[in-house]
Amino acid sequence: MATAVVVSASVPADPEKEKSEMAVEKVISPDPCIKHPLQNRWALWFFKNDKSKTWQANLRLISKFDAVEDFWALYNHIQLSSNLMSGCDYSLFKDGIEPMWEDNRNRRGGRWLITLSKQQRKSDLDRFWLETLLCLVGEAFDDSSDDVCGAVINVRAKGDKIAIWTTDCENKDAITHIGRVYKERLGVPTKVIIGYQSHADTATKSSSSTKNKFVA
User: Fold this and answer.
1) How far apart are CA 194 and CA 110, in angstroms?
2) Of 74, 112, 157, 167, which one has the fewest beta carbons inside 10 Å?
3) N- to C-terminal Cα distance for the chain?
4) How far apart are CA 97 and CA 75, in angstroms?
5) What's the CA gap between 139 and 92, in Å, rounded?
6) What is the three-class DSSP state of 162?
7) What mean pLDDT comes out for the span 46-55?
């Protein structure tokens, strides 16, 4: 173990020696090796629309993580959403939940949906998606975070979409709390309405005709 070096005030410090000691301390200090655990383990998925394959064959698991540092390492390694080809999706879901309606945790649920114009791809898409990810991994919805399954971003030529999926479309208290906090975190103006739709309604109707079950 290195002993502490006491430098007298009357003796000028050796800057090279100090630099060397700081470097050694940095190496032997365990602090940089300690990761900050997240409350949940998360899985990031990527979907590429190849019409020669089935929907499930186009869905690929990228990586799983359960620490703050691993989240940022993954986020900084992948393409920004605004650079993806049209027809591609990213999905971030709690480990054990697949990003599809048929999953047991999703099939009775729904989603808060943000629809962006073509112009917003450059100005808002990446910022909105990162804020959505931070809401999820940071458990931003308090106790209602337990109801969150994951989030999906759809990059499309007609306009991009971001959605937070929840597990029970009848749990009004949790859903409305999530919607209110989510809208605030994104900085969506008060006068702009965002809607929550059940997956059952979305599956049987076109997205333009799906009615909002709740609004924020």
Assistant:
1) 13
2) 157
3) 58
4) 20
5) 13
6) strand
7) 89
Cβ-based neighbour number of residue 19 at 10 Å: 9
The answer to whether 67 and 36 have CB atoms below 8 angstroms apart is yes
| pLDDT at site 11 | 42
Q: How far apart are CA 153 and CA 148, in angstroms?
A: 15
Q: Is the dihedral of CA 136, 215, 115, 107 positive or negative?
A: positive
Residue 16 pLDDT > 70, yes or no?
no
* Three-class secondary structure of residue 87 per DSSP: coil
DSSP notation for the chain? -PPP-PPPTTS---HHHHHHHHHHHHHH-SGGG---EEEEEEEEEEE---TTS-HHHHEEEEEEEEEHHHHHHHHTTSPPGGGSPTT-EEEEEETT--SSTTSTTTTT-EEEEEE--TTHIIIIIHHHHHHHHHHHHTTTTGGGGGGEEEEEEE--TT--EEEEEES-TT-HHHHHHHHHHHHHHHT--TTS--EEEEHHHHHHS-TTTPPPSEE-
Write out the DSSP string of 136-149.
Answer: HHTTTTGGGGGGEE
Provide the β-strand partners of residue 183.
none
Residue matched to tokens 């979409």: 161
Of 127, 111, 81, 118, the residue nearest 198 (C-alpha): 111
Confidence of residue 50 (pLDDT cuts 50, 70, 90): confident
